Amino acid sequence: MKILVTGHKGFIGQNMVKALEEHDLFLYEIGEPLPNVKGLDWVIHLGANSSTTETNVEKIIDQNYDFSRWLLNKCQDKGVNFQYSSSASVYGLGTDFKESAPANPLSPYAWSKLLFDRYVVGFEKQWTIKVQGFRYFNVHGPYEDHKGDQASPHHKFTKQAEITGVIKLFEGSENYKRDFVPVETVVDIHKKFFNVKESGIWNVGTGNPQSFKSVAETIAESTGARIEYIPMPDRLTNQYQKYTCADLTKLNKTLNDNSIC
Fold first, then answer.
1. What is the pTM of this model?
2. Catalytic center residues
């Protein structure tokens, strides 16, 4: 198959490219000349401003919403199927993580993801291609080095343990539980959905949340590092998700109905 992967230099993008190396791949990064999608089978749109603390709203909307909308419409014009990355950040501080649950985005990044989800759903009757969105929960795995503060706790805690011997953990982290999903699972879901005829939006997670404290303790035990508790920065307090847990009912039904897993 001929597949365009946007955001191929990013964390998930690098893993995606590696997993799809048997296909004819075309690669794109935001800021390059706009891509030509004619003749492709799929676009996997991972390219985005992924900073959850970005405050430049125009920049976020331009990169995460306007470009995504342009790319989807180009795919529609040329008959190219489209997959894209959404985010569990659209659920905000809620506790209902069904795809149909009310959204509560708390940052420009989360808003940009929700706006594009709404665009996809709002015009779903006009799509003659497959349009598949995936709300990633907390993804972790190889190639996170460039992400800095946006890296997963698994990556940050491991690096801290290796470099300083001290894992810095926010106070109260035993109460912060997230659905940490390996990047291999994310990539595998994308590949399975090549054979799914449906369009829509699906959660991608494990359904088994872990506390930040338990992640840190596991890494500390294996590396001999100690844990140091620090206050949470003010800029995070109002938008920090204390709990996420992917409801995988829709994902599992889709995959079972299509005899993939």
1. 0.91
2. 109, 147
